[in-house]
Write a structure and sequence with these properties.
Blueprint (H helix, E strand, L loop, with lengths): L2 H6 L2 H34 L9 H30 L2
């Protein structure tokens, strides 16, 4: 989301967007952990390397989490600046 778009949103919209981002991030982290544990289990105990490409999914999810958290941080900074006015 662009900074201009963030500044034009109401405080309530920003709060709601932050809550939504946090929920999405929590689900992505949970799913990524499950995928990672499954891949490691298959690789270590079953000696099955066919699931290793799923590590790319985990890495992609981590990138999405970082981007979303950065966006939430920008939104929170905007909310804080509005409170300080």
């Amino acid at each position: 989301m662009k900074n201009k778009k963030i500044k034009t949103q109401s405080s309530e919209q920003l709060r709601q967007n932050i809550k939504t981002i946090k929920a999405i991030v929590a689900m992505l982290i949970g799913t990524s952990i499950l995928v990672l544990l499954t891949v490691l289990y298959l690789f270590i105990f079953k000696k099955d390397t066919s699931a290793l490409p799923l590590l790319i999914v985990t890495i992609g999810s981590a990138i999405i989490v970082i981007i979303n958290l950065k966006q939430a941080k920008i939104m929170q900074a905007e909310l804080n600046s509005r409170k300080n006015r």
